[in-house]
Amino acid sequence: MELRGAAGHVVVGGGVLGLSAAWRLAERGADVLVLDKGRIGGGASGAAGGIVRNYYRAPAITDVVRQSVEIFESDPEAFGFRQVGYLAAVPEAQVDDLV
Question: How far apart are the first and last CA of the chain?
């Protein structure tokens, strides 16, 4: 395959997240190029989000997630962990759970 020399927008990653972003840009008339190291749509998009959070409503996963966050926080440099904050928008009925 030949790579184009230029594009108005370049999306790195052809998983669900990257393709969704590219689609929305293209719908608005943008010139979009999607790059992926493998097959388009063939990877795990969940890894691309880079989210480590400690809020889940399902009790079965809450303790596992808490322990995971503690592991990341125990050695941020080793894990490439950089805490940047978190914004959550939840229905009013879930506010107490979030707090």
Answer: 51
